[in-house]
Amino acid sequence: MDKNTWIGFLLIAAIIVGFTMLNRPSKEQLAERQRIHDSISLARMAQAEAQRLADSISAQMETPIEMPKEEAKPEEQWVTLENEHVRLTLSSYGGVIQRAELKEYHASGDSINPLCLFRADESSFGFTLVTINNRILNTANLYFTPVACEQPNKAIMRLPGMAEDSWLDFVYELSDDYMVHLALEPHNMQQVLAQNVNALELYWTQSIPQQEQGRKFEERYAQLQYMLVGGDMEKLSESKEDSQKESTRVKWIGYKDQFFSTVLIADDAFSSSQFHSKPENRYSRYIKSYATTTSVPFDLTGKTPTGMRFYFGPNHYHTLKAYDEGAKKEDRLYLNKLVPLGWKIVSWINTALVIPMFDLFTSWGLHIGIVILLMTIVIKIIILPFVFVSYKSSAKMRALRPQLDAINEKYPADKMQERQQATMQLYQQAGVNPMSGCLPMLFQFPVLMAMFWFLPTAIELRGKSLFWADDLSTYDAVFQWGFNIPLLGDHLSLFCLLMMICNIAYTYITMQSQATDPNMKFMKYMTYAMPLMFLFIFNDYAAGLSYYYLVSLFITIAQTMIFRWSLDDEKMLKEMEENKKKKAGKPKSGFMERLEKMQREQQRLAREQAKAAQKRR
Questions:
Q1: Cα atoms in the 13 Å half-sphere on the side-chain side of 27
Q2: Which residues contact 144 (CB under 8 A, 6 or more apart)?
Q3: How far apart are CA 356 and CA 322, in angstroms?
Q4: What is the tens place of the pLDDT at every residue in 515-536?
Q5: What's the rounded Cα separation, in Å, for the pair 204 and 18?
Q6: Which residues, at least 6 apart from 280, have a Cβ–Cβ distance to it below 8 Å?
Q7: How many helices (H) and strands (E) does the chain have?
Q8: What is the pLDDT of residues 98-138, one digit of tens each?
Q9: Burial of 441 (0-12, 13-18, 19+ CB in 10 A)
Q10: CA-CA distance, 89 to 95, in Å (whole number)?
Q11: For the stretch 97-131, what's the b/e string if a residue is b when 16 or more beta carbons lie within 10 angstroms of its beta carbon?
Q12: In the 3-class helix/strand/coil scheme, how is 342-391 assigned residue by residue?
């Protein structure tokens, strides 16, 4: 190589070295490159570890995993107890009555299937058991084994104990009516349950399905009721959610609907009870939900079985009262109190008059419409003398109308006390008692209220038809508009409408035959407004009740027309004038003297107050 070639290589080397030195990274740049390199290395290591874990999981997924085998649950079994009245279905799961049907009745709108008080998912019933190793069990969650029984209408559900040759039996015996007895019979349970157990906690819930067309009234009469030992009845609110604790011993607990009840009756008594009642939403298929927590005595040795009874049946007065026949007073159940018959005096009229009369007419095999008609006629005959006295008093006051008008003209409105005194003096001389017109109402009102309580709750009316009404125990809707009108509802009942029209007619006839003050026009309009109010009040009530009031009004109108034709106003006026002459020289009665003295005293006080007011001015 010549000289020029070496010089060229050296220059190229110098350029490369110089360029390298000029472009060499600083210490900061070298540190950044190292950080990036380390990050890349860590990322690659993490990726490799993730891949290794993924491969491991994949390998595990490919290998079948053996799960521990669950213990097979016993197969649920059912036992049926049945008589001509009820059909009860017992389940081995919980050993309880899972379904109760009343064979003689049907739910509203269902004429085929028996009425079902509750189904499996609508009721829960169980006892709390405390084992010897402090485990807490509920029989409602345990499986029982049905034991074969040779006796008819008897079933035994057996809960095997954890120890050998130990069990707890639920023994059910169905009677010939609506009662079924439950006995808890332990066998060698001392080696299973805690030794200090002398009572069992009982938990019972039930949802009450809607059975009737008229939900409003079914809600009103559906109620949780219970009877204390001694005969005192207690109730939870029927209109709102309510709870109550009871320290007193309880004889029975009733889950009540309008016409049917499920009642739990202790052989001895329940103690430390808590009750809860909750109304359901109006769109729910249930009316109320009830819950009870209470305690029952329990003998571990089995020498004294724990016993109780269930009543699954109608709220029929005689059926319920029959359970007290022949019983001592301290042993009576008073289940008939489940039938609402009104306040004390009204209840007495129902039990002494209305129910016996109803039983008599129905025993003749008459149609229910004829029965109510005959009852109305009998009641009208009983109170006829008082009604006649009332009408005669009104007729006398009507005959005295001209003389009353003269008194009103003589004494203007600002002399009201003088007017009243003169009016009372006229009544006394004529022999008229203005209070006699009120006396019939004192006798009629309790009877009217007795029928008001009896007919809507009489199960005998349930499902009975009359004319256009298919069921006299509920409203007879002839028009329905699918939406709610305040106070009236979503329908119009024909019997109620006819009752209102008849009531307006009766009011018109009464107003024509009575002496009225022309200055009291407002009261006249109010009298006509009352029948219209009855339409809103009774539109949801039982058609049987509206039918009774309709028939009663027809008979009352007929009575009024007969009284009017039989009484002569001129003849009565002559008799009153003669009576005035006879009493002219006689001293006033003590009552009239006291009344006039009170009026004079009121006049004196009024004059003194008027003078004092003038002085202050």
A1: 0
A2: 92, 93, 94, 95, 157, 158, 159, 170
A3: 15
A4: 555 555 556 667 777 888 888 8
A5: 100
A6: 207, 286, 287, 288, 289
A7: 15, 20
A8: 999 999 999 988 888 999 999 988 999 999 999 888 889 99
A9: middle
A10: 10
A11: bbbbbbeebbbbeeeeebbbbbeeebbbbbbbbee
A12: CCHHHHHHHHHHHHHHHHHHHHCCCCHHHHHHHHHHHHHHHHHHHHHHHH
Inter-residue contact 99 to 81 (CB < 8 Å): no
More confident residue, 545 or 55: 545
- Which residue, among 368, 378, 531, has the nearest Cα to 460 in the 3D structure? 368
Rounded to whole angstroms, the Cα distance separating 80 from 412 reads: 83
Q: Where do runs of H (alpha helix) occur along 484-568?
A: 494-513, 521-538, 543-566
Burial readout 312-330 (b: 16 or more C-beta within 10 A, e: otherwise)? bbbbbbebbbebeeeeeee
583 compared with 564, residue with greater pLDDT? 564
Largest CA distance in the chain: 183
Structure tokens at 3: 């000289």
Q: Which tokens in the block code for residue 62?
A: 């490919």
Residue pair 223/238 in contact (Cβ under 8 Å)? The answer is yes
- Phi (first) and psi of residue 64, to 5 degrees: -60, 140
Residue type, 144: F
d(CA 207, CA 121): 9
Taking the model in full, what pTM does it have? Answer: 0.76
Q: Considering only 68-72, 282-286, 294-298, which range has the smallest mean pLDDT?
A: 68-72
The average pLDDT across 200-222 equals 92
| CA angle centred on 500, ends 499 and 501, rounded to 5° | 95
In the block, residue with structure tokens 């006689």: 586
